[in-house]
Amino acid sequence: MSTxxxxxxxxxxxxxxxxxxxxxxxxxxxxxxxxxxxxxVKHAEPVIGHLHRAQEWQGQNRTxxxxxxxxxxxxxxSGMFTSWxxxxxxxxxxxxxxxxxxxxxxxxxxxxxxxxxxxxxxGTYLIDLGAMFGFPFYPFREREKLLDLFEExxxxxxxxxxxxxxxxxxxPNDAWLxxxxxxxxxxxxxVDEYEAIVTENPIFxxxxxxxxxxxxSLAKQYAVTGPSIRASGTDMDLRKTKPYSVYPKxxxxxxxxxxxxxxxxxxxxxxxxxEMRESNKIIKQCLDMLPTExxxxxxxxxxxxxxxxxxxxxSVESPRGILGCYVISDGKDKAIRFRWRNPSFCNLSVLSELxxxxxxxxxxxxxxxxxxxxxxxxR
Length: 379
Hints:
Blueprint: E1 14-19, E2 31-37, E3 40-47, H1 55-59, H2 64-67, H3 79-94, H4 100-128, H5 137-154, E4 163-164, E5 167-168, H6 174-198, H7 202-208, H8 216-221, H9 227-230, H10 238-241, H11 265-289, E6 310-318, E7 321-329, E8 335-341, H12 343-349, H13 351-354, H14 363-369, H15 374-378
Antiparallel strand pairs: 1-2, 2-3, 4-5, 6-7, 7-8
């Protein structure tokens, strides 16, 4: 007796679920409202604001000197860059001349901070993908060495308050410089170790290749910056396209990928790996070119610190992209207005486009690849 098997169409119903804000892999207090059709995302809406701390409002209700100590919290993994953006905007307005020695120190500690930020991203990204055994701790081995150096020169391991309006907080001693040089000499070998484990790992390739493709046109529409847009086919990097500080005196490359169809999550991974190597190259040059003598600040640091009346804006290339600070002053002890241009906010916005059509298992692989810091979004 023959049995006739009739093909039936699989019917699924849409389901709306919340991912976060308690989800441990959302890199902070983020809620994602997902509309699913079976295992696939039909609509994604990031819901932000859970971490709002009124950083701009605080800038208008604290003295210039006080606010310098608060802005490291805007992006807690890149405190050197938030301090630098604020300092540069005030220096543009105040027409303050920063000593050359201080400029080299700013570049040096900021590139150290870029490496430490990328190292933390790399370790946590692998955890997002399920690599719980062993590797996530490799990047933290080198990151701890950088945090020790930060602690010695700035007094803190995360909220540095090292870069000040007019210069930097203090000059390093010879022992500190020797330890940093030793780090730079071994770091490229450590990056080789990361790549040997990860870059061509078949499981990693399966989770990242052809996943979360970001076309350059879409990235520009959402004002995406940093490694995420350079992985999609542009060489936009303020250190080269709009040079500042002593970057024009340094020999380094801006890494980007010629990807007309758009970069995927693997491309965004390899861009950050290459950026770490380039930052190490910059630090080596700064160590060689750093003036041994000279002032480290062009403005006296005290509680009576003031900035001339007017408007100022400046931006820097942070680990997540273009970080800008706009300020209005009336010449008194407090600013009238502070406004931040945060790269994580724009980079997060494109997530609603990247996730559509992807299976739910790829959500964290895609989200983690754009490297968002939630305090940087909410401020």
